[in-house]
């Protein structure tokens, strides 16, 4: 690869926001036909560097060269002219438009009367989907699609732009395994055509699977560039964190007393045809994992428990007492917290500050004294920011200005500050860096150690195996298996059970 020429060169790029340098003389180069990983902790500057290449931000100093020529990129249009396309970490689709309209949004086909040519848009979109091997109805409204299909539509949109350089910012965050496979196949095809790809991800396995080289950023500086064939995952992690070793999460067997009254009991939960007669008990101090394929009904189950979606049947008990939960307010009053899967949309108000977001779920618990003490409020917010290492640690900063991973920390901080008794977590570590992942899992353990309970949905099996006491495997909306952690040998064993392969 390294003998190929540089399609893109970014030299000595610096960028500050509000007087704070977030990129400090960073150089970055991509050769033709390579897949180049861009790695670093939350807030390291990955998205910012790529947004400069895409014309979202303008660099303060430095130079960009595309195909050997100095490039001046100040807008999307400029970037497209240079053949640069990007799939953003935050979705950029318009929910009310169709898939086809979104794909050709900024360069819609006009017929000879200069009207929007719906037919041509649909025809071309179908071609793109075919090329990607995707079975998506291009006339469907984006708002009606699941997360995974929305993600794939984003990718289709970027590819349809005839990009020579494609930037993907954490593209697999909401994809299931088969969808990831499909995406990787597409990426390989694109590189065979000479397209170069920048791949931002916190997932080491993916980086090794498809990338040729890796550039590592730390605190806005370029730390290293390697061929992946020449560096170990441990070395990468050490470069990313700047520390020699990062704690790995190993299972610590603990005994949960299951003769007592369950802290929570669900029986016969029904949600349309998506959740079918699900029953389980949860004991004080227990961490219960929900494993399953994407679309197996895990998210629907916890949403219904939390009162976000209507239950069509079933009963709930807390500490042995029947309870009815019709909406999230009632769930919170009963001591539940839900850290939702789609955090950026469901968990945060982007234009509000970190402080406002953290307080949103907490005002009722803080106002029981009939007055709100400013110092109390500020303490809650400061403690949250500290314990979750929200960076930068500024309570009044608008959430939209934080890096993706730091936005996720704010959602978790917000719900933890309500001091919940039963915590429902839906993929809590998607998009957070390796150090923070371990911190979140430690938090899960700490909650359980206080005698509270956690229901944890995760597609990362090592995570489930690391912290859970029991795991329910959900398949087609039903509890297919209930497994004690000590009866699961390893990740492969659990993977086979999840896939429904007899072991
Ligand atoms: N528009 C903005 N205004 C102010 N600060 C910003 C803005 N965009 C990013 N930042 C800050 O720049 C730094 C780098 O952010 P960036 O989004 O590039 O990180 P990242 O490496 O992509 O992290 P993550 O893995 O969490 O997505 C962060 O401290 C972030 O808060
Ligand atoms: Mg980012």
TrEMBL record:
<keyword id="KW-0677">Repeat</keyword>
<dbReference type="GO" id="GO:0005524">
    <property type="term" value="F:ATP binding"/>
</dbReference>
<keyword id="KW-0813">Transport</keyword>
<keyword id="KW-0547">Nucleotide-binding</keyword>
<keyword id="KW-0067">ATP-binding</keyword>
<keyword id="KW-0472">Membrane</keyword>
<feature type="domain" description="ABC transporter">
    <location>
        <begin position="8"/>
        <end position="244"/>
    </location>
</feature>
<dbReference type="GO" id="GO:0016887">
    <property type="term" value="F:ATP hydrolysis activity"/>
</dbReference>
<feature type="domain" description="ABC transporter">
    <location>
        <begin position="257"/>
        <end position="501"/>
    </location>
</feature>
<dbReference type="InterPro" id="IPR003593">
    <property type="entry name" value="AAA+_ATPase"/>
</dbReference>
<protein>
    <submittedName>
        <fullName>Sugar ABC transporter ATP-binding protein</fullName>
    </submittedName>
</protein>
<keyword id="KW-1003">Cell membrane</keyword>
<dbReference type="InterPro" id="IPR050107">
    <property type="entry name" value="ABC_carbohydrate_import_ATPase"/>
</dbReference>
<dbReference type="InterPro" id="IPR027417">
    <property type="entry name" value="P-loop_NTPase"/>
</dbReference>
<dbReference type="GO" id="GO:0005886">
    <property type="term" value="C:plasma membrane"/>
</dbReference>
<keyword id="KW-1278">Translocase</keyword>
<dbReference type="InterPro" id="IPR003439">
    <property type="entry name" value="ABC_transporter-like_ATP-bd"/>
</dbReference>
<dbReference type="InterPro" id="IPR017871">
    <property type="entry name" value="ABC_transporter-like_CS"/>
</dbReference>
<dbReference type="Pfam" id="PF00005">
    <property type="entry name" value="ABC_tran"/>
</dbReference>
């Amino acid at each position: 690869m390294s003998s190929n020429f540089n399609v893109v060169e970014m030299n000595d790029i610096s960028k500050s926001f509000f007087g704070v340098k977030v990129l400090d003389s960073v150089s970055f180069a991509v050769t033709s036909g390579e897949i180049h990983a861009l790695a670093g902790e939350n807030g390291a500057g990955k998205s910012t560097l790529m947004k400069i290449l895409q014309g979202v931000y303008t660099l303060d100093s430095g130079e960009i060269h595309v195909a050997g020529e100095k490039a001046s990129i100040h807008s999307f249009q400029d970037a497209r002219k240079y053949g640069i396309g990007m799939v953003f970490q935050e979705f950029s689709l318009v929910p009310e438009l169709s898939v086809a309209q979104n794909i050709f949004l900024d360069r819609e086909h006009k017929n000879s009367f200069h009207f929007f040519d719906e037919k041509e848009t649909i025809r071309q979109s179908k071609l793109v989907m075919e090329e990607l091997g995707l079975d998506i109805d291009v006339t469907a409204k984006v708002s009606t699609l699941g997360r995974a299909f929305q993600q794939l539509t984003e990718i289709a949109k970027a590819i349809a732009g005839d990009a020579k350089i494609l930037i993907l910012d954490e593209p697999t965050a909401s994809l299931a395994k088969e969808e990831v496979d499909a995406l990787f196949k597409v990426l390989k095809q694109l590189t065979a055509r000479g397209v170069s790809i920048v791949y931002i991800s916190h997932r080491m396995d993916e980086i090794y699977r498809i990338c040729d080289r890796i550039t590592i950023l730390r605190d806005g500086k370029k730390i290293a560039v390697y061929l992946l064939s020449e560096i170990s995952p441990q070395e990468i992690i050490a470069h990313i964190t700047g520390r020699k070793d990062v704690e790995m999460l190993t299972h610590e067997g603990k005994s949960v007393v299951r003769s007592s009254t369950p802290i929570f009991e669900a029986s016969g939960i029904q949600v349309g045809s998506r959740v079918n007669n699900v029953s389980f008990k949860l004991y004080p101090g227990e961490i219960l994992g929900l494993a399953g394929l994407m679309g197996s009904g895990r998210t629907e189950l916890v949403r219904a428990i939390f009162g976000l979606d209507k239950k069509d049947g079933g009963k709930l008990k807390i500490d042995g007492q029947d309870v009815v939960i019709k909406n999230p307010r009632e769930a919170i009053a009963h001591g539940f917290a839900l850290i939702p899967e789609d955090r950026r949309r469901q968990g945060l108000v982007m234009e509000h500050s970190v402080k406002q977001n953290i307080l949103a779920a907490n005002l009722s618990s803080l106002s029981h004294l009939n007055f709100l003490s400013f110092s109390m409020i500020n303490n809650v917010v400061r403690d949250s920011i500290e314990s979750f290492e929200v960076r930068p640690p500024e309570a009044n900063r608008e959430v939209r200005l934080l890096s993706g991973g730091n936005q996720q920390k704010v959602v978790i901080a917000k719900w933890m500050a309500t001091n919940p008794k039963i915590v429902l977590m839906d993929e809590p570590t998607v998009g957070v860096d390796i150090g923070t992942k371990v911190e979140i899992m430690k938090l899960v353990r700490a909650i359980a150690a206080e005698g509270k309970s956690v229901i944890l949905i995760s597609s990362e099996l090592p995570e489930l195996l690391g912290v859970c006491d029991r795991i329910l495997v959900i398949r087609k909306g039903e509890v297919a298996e209930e497994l004690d952690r000590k009866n699961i040998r390893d990740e492969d064993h659990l993977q086979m059970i999840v896939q429904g392969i007899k072991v």
